Amino acid sequence: MDGILQIIAIWALPVLFAITLHEASHGLVAKQLGDPTAKMLGRLTANPLKHIDPVGTVLVPIGLLLFTALTPAPPFVFGWAKPVPVNTNNLRNPQRDMAIVAVAGPTANLLMAIFWALMIKLSVLLQGTVDWVATPLFYMGIAGITINILLMVLNMLPLPPLDGGRVVAGFLPPRVAARYERLEPYGLVIILILLFTGILGAILFPVYGFFVDLLQTVFALPSWR
Question: What pLDDT digit, counting tens, does each position of 128-141 carry?
Answer without folding.
Answer: 899 899 999 999 99
